[in-house]
Amino acid sequence: MEAGEAAGALLFLLAAAVSLLAALSTGAVDFTYLVTVVGEGSPSPPSSPSWWWWYEEWWVWVRSRAVAPALQVGVWACMVMSVMLVVEAAYNSAVSIAFRLVGWRPERRFKWEPLAGDGDGDEEKGVDAAAAAAADYPMVMVQIPMYNELEVYKLSIRAVCELKWPKERLIIQVLDDSTDAFIKNLVELECEDWAKKGLNIKYATRSGRKGFKAGALKKGMELDYAKQCEYVAIFDADFQPEPDFLLRTVPFLVHNQNVALVQARWIFTVNDRISLLTRIQRTFLDYHFKAEQEAGSATFSFFSFNGTAGVWRREAIDDAGGWKDRTTVEDMDLAVRATLKGWKFIYLGDIRVKSELPSTYKAYCRQQFRWSCGGANLFRKMVWDVLAAKKVSSLKKIYMLYSFFLVRRVVAPAVAFILYNVIIPLSVMIPELYLPIWGVAYIPTALLIVTAIRNPENLHTVPIWILCESVMSMHRLRAAVAGLLQLQEFNQWIVTQKVGNNAFNENNETPLLQKTRKRVNLPEIVLSVFLIFCATYNLVFHGKNSFYINLYLQGLAFFLLGLNCVGTLPSHCCF
Fold this sequence. Notes:
alpha/beta; Spore Coat Polysaccharide Biosynthesis Protein SpsA, Chain A; seven-stranded mixed β-sheet; 17 helices; 54% helix
């Protein structure tokens, strides 16, 4: 067991202990409540009872003896999942903050030195000296998978071609799975233009799209010229790395033979301010990188490869069995299999790569469905492999199965939708149902604080983010169920639509994609009607709890996103 793993386990237990101590000290936790059985002491029937009286008596009897007990089981299941979720979130934030406060950096755990010949004035050296210095650089291949990427193909190819690395030690591979002949021709011409400038750029296509992105990456690595490369960097078509990306990442792989992956952070300067939808996506992903990725890297040297903006050791890819197309999260799949082989990962939050966020609600839903469904399906496929792995410590296995898979891929979407969009709304019409205050008030508040701590710059968008996450929980739960049960759509792959430099129109105010015809999203509209009805019922017939303000806001969020309203704002607005 390594020191990082021991520290991670200790901090996890500490987070759980602090959460429990806070609950006990405030008297919030109370498990003594039993479901009240209505019936004893019921008023005697009138001399001539009407049909309405009999209906009310029947409904009270059914509600108290069948509906309330069934929902109460759901309540306690959600309470357990809520505790799991808040401890996990507190742990990730505590680890990332603690390591930041002590000034921990990956260089303290893993060796990093600039490569020989990497320094100022190299361009002034003679030809022989420059050639000798270039020989000290390993062969690197940069893969750019794309599919009908008309809006962004030039951005990614240009950014990769401007990477600082000896030209004779760099191969750029554009893997074009486009089905549009016009776009394919443009991409090929772009590659030819850069080849004329002396870049070793290869344009590769396939006859079909078998395996989607995983199939394209696998095919690219099987080509003869690719086999000479020791390291493979991957950038999706909308990603734009800085010129020094390879100079800052590859040395970690060169000097640490047990490291398989170096992952950089995503930033969203391309379109993160065009709408409220992109702002809340940034909040969600910023927390993912700042808390989850940093915590996993600092403690267990394990986290999910984000599919792009990372550099792999080819030996590790081959050792793990290569790219597989059995799920829609081929990046996570490879990361888990490589970890089970004993390889370690490094996350570098200081290296940031520009990327683009989905600009429409439909594109965002499809992206989240693919990620959530694939993660849950991979959990189903890998659980026994993780338990049987011999090169992974027991603590790391627990972290992978419990924190990485169970809590994040299953528990989080389940409790977010079932508790806040089903049970709490129904509770206003079922007075026998008991909702502990610590589960419906204290835990959500704690989650809000934990998220805000790691995203202080996004604090003003957190309330809107909470409402949007309530809506997205419906899609994530449906995706998780589809992945766990391997339903028909579990392996569905739809590429996220991008806008590139066309994110704004001539007036620089609204996204061009907003001009497309909107369609109504029926599930969101139905949920909005249900939530607004429950809120109105709670407002008119006051019961034990008053949730109508929250329910009205949730219903409004479902309604607006059901109409594809993403909150477009003028570009000069600083919100």
